[in-house]
Design a protein that fits this description.
This protein is an all-beta fold. Helix content is about 0%, strand content about 55%. Strand 1 and strand 2 (about 20-30) form a beta hairpin. The two termini are about 20 Å apart.
């Protein structure tokens, strides 16, 4: 899967509970300056948890 545009950046999301990297997504680095934070399902914790953007 390619990145959509020249302003988009591929980011990795990690679970707050177990700290495992579960998801990848894209974000527009011009419109979203701060780190992403999404509520997603973690298969290791077996529950919905907050996932934050990592380096």
């Amino acid at each position: 899967m390619g990145i959509k545009g020249k302003n988009d950046k591929m980011v990795v999301l990690a679970c707050d509970e177990c700290k495992r990297r579960n998801y990848t997504t894209t974000k527009n680095k011009k419109t979203l300056k701060e780190r992403m934070e999404l509520n997603k399902y973690c298969p290791f914790c077996k529950q919905h948890t907050t996932h934050k953007e990592t380096k």
